[in-house]
Amino acid sequence: MDYEIKKPEGNNIKATIDLPSSKSISNRVLIMNALSERPARLGHIAQCDDTDVMVKALESDGTHVDIGAAGTAMRFLTAYYSQQPGTHTITGSERMRKRPIKILVDALNEAGANIGYVGEEGFPPLIIKGGKLRGGHIELDSSVSSQYISALMMVAPTMEQGLELELKGKLVSLPYILMTKQLMEQFGAKVSMEGNTVKIAPQKYTAKDMDVESDWSASSYWYEIAALAEEQEIRLPRLYNPSVQGDSQIANLFRPLGINTTFEGDTVKLTKTGTPVAHYEENLVEQPDLAQTFVVTCCMLGTTFRFSGLGNLKIKETDRIAALINEMAKLGYVVTEPEDGVLAWDGKRCEPATDLQIATYEDHRMAMAFAPVCLRNGSIKIANAQVVSKSYPLYWEDLKKAGFEVK
After folding, report:
1. How many domains does the chain have?
2. So which residues are the catalytic ones?
3. Which are the contacts of 249, defined by CB distance < 8 A and separation ≥ 6?
4. Which terminus has fewer CB within 10 Å in the chain: N or C?
5. Which portions of the chain are predicted below pLDDT 70?
């Protein structure tokens, strides 16, 4: 379904928005809870496609699992089923079957798993013959996806020898690995991280009741809205400070774009502070999911930029670097990739598309990052707008609540 989004009257936003719960936290604690001898109560689990498939898979016998487009579920469940008795097949959408998983499969097989490929080597679908994992010392390329590391870490306590994971190459998305470590420790599992080595001894998880906090990644679109609106008063409840979520850094990262963050208990209040910087440079290697938000916001504000550390965007739901370059060109902005993993804009413009519609490439973040463009363009058309269900199903309803017209 295609949507047209129009800006609120007067370009003035006043709203309190209940963001979705963090799917990153939800997906991790669901795995740990399933590995605990006595599962606990998990409150405010995310209600979205990525987490729904995880819940359904863990409640099933795991014989045949289709996780759709949920990359996190594919990585985490591959590790989980590798130590669950029985034969399991796990597959996904057409895009998922093109997303590499060989690094994780090789590591698990080295640890004693029995995982094979149904089709092309290195890609889902997978066939997993689960059983007790040996563990031991494993080397892993850490430059591709932090989810491989998190998947291995979470099943490590069940391994006979535990796990000593030596990380090779440039580490991406470190905050997500630290999130996994902190949540494992909340569930009673000790994790040692020294330099590029992660050590986890054989041990038992002790699940504890917990409520999942709101999603800092989802807050980014409201930071973008705050930056592009003429006037705004936006409050976002259940965002914690400090937070285990690496994307909580958005509170600092949006300051140069004129938005200040005030914590009122567990509620964030966004305030305009002045003129955005003329040029913005930032390494987003630890916050790659914010790239689309920053690229769109900066172009709309007229702020030139150079964002580095984005190499792994090419293996996300789509090649996000190519998608951003294509769709910003429709809006009249010449965004380039001057070198691998870098997105830049030097102010160069091009002729915008006449019948403008933003393609979303089956990527939820494309839809959500481009919708606020209407605050500067009056309106924007978004193709296949339902893709937001992957992480933020009520996004369009929340825009309506804030005064946007969505049809």
Report:
1. 2
2. 289
3. 175, 286, 287
4. N
5. none
pLDDT in tens, 283-308: 999 999 999 999 999 999 999 999 99
Residue 273 tokens read as 């502070």
**Pair 298, 177 in one domain:** no
Compute the Cα dihedral for 173, 177, 178, 182 and give only its sign: positive
Q: CA 55 to CA 57: how far, in whole Å?
A: 5
d(C-alpha 239, C-alpha 255), whole Å = 17
**Whether residue 101 is found in the same domain as residue 177:** yes
> Could you say which of 185, 211, 237 is where a domain stops?
211
Q: What is the CA radius of gyration of the chain?
A: 21
* Residues 275, 354 within the same domain: yes
Angle between helices 146-155 and 71-82 (to 10 degrees): 30
On the question of a cis peptide bond just before residue 125, with omega within 30 degrees of 0, the verdict is yes
Pairing relation of β-strands 64-66 and 86-91? parallel
Backbone angles phi, psi at 42, to 5 degrees: -115, 110
- Is the domain of 33 the same as that of 173? yes
pLDDT of residue 10: 85
- The DSSP bridge partners found for residue 343 are 307
In angstroms, rounded to a whole number, what is the distance separating the alpha carbons of residues 378 and 7? 6
Measure the CA–CA gap between 212 and 240, rounded to whole angstroms: 10
Assess whether 301 and 373 both reside in one domain: yes
Q: Do residues 207 and 274 both lie within one domain? A: no
First to last CA, the chain: 10
Beta-strand relationship, 86-91 and 126-130: antiparallel
- If asked whether residues 224 and 251 sit together in one domain, one would say yes
Chosen domain end from 211, 230, 254 = 211
For 20, the token pair is 């979705």
Cβ count within 10 A of residue 273: 12
pLDDT value at position 147? 95
Q: Cα 104 from chain centroid?
A: 18
* CATH code for the domain in which residue 368 is found: 3.65.10.10
Residues 182 and 316 in one domain: no
Q: Give the number of residues written for the chain.
A: 407
Residue from 187, 174, 208, 201 nearest 43 by CA = 208
The boundaries of the domain holding residue 34 are: 23-211
Tell me which residue of 399, 394, 403 sits closest to 20, measured CA to CA: 394
Question: Looking up tokens 């994307």, which residue turns up?
Answer: 247
| pLDDT at position 312 | 76
With pLDDT > 90 as the criterion, what percentage of the chain qualifies? 93
Q: Which of 344, 257, 334 is nearest to 304 (CA)?
A: 344
